[in-house]
Amino acid sequence: MTTDSEATLHCGVNEHYRRIWHTVKLIPAGRVASYGQIADLAGLPGRARMVGKALQAAPKPMQLPWHRVLRSNGQIAFPAGSDTAEEQKGRLQEEEVVVLKNRVRLVEYQWRPDLAELLFGLAF
DNA sequence: CACATGACATCCA
DNA sequence: GTGGATGCCATGT
Length: 124
Hints:
Blueprint: H1 4-11, H2 13-25, E1 33-34, H3 35-41, H4 48-57, E2 69-70, H5 83-94, E3 99-100, E4 103-104, H6 106-109, H7 115-122
Parallel strand pairs: 1-2
Antiparallel strand pairs: 3-4
Helix pairs in contact: 2-4, 3-4
The structure holds a DNA duplex (13 and 13 nucleotides).
């Protein structure tokens, strides 16, 4: 194992995924964040797609609050009516987040972390 | 190596 | 509101 697989392992995706997962864990119950927002907070501006990959690759036992991550317009990223979308809607409603037409009102529910929150969360 | 696909975002018509 | 073009980049064929 010489070249890229090792390099990729060292400085690459795994490290990014770790940071993404960590950031998602910081979203408080009852609030939501967008993929792009998570990417930014994780130090990966412009890489919203990687957030999707990271969540997809996230081991289930990790218990990530993936349901709090939405599109930049507040929509659930899965096709309306799909099992996954329904589960996400259910989990959000458990947290008093209103979901209508597969979508959440970001003006009401989007997470807006203050500085102290970020310092505490990301300092690890 | 080239190409397609995707739990996305932004800009513009 | 819709839809297309572009940027982004890991993964799989």
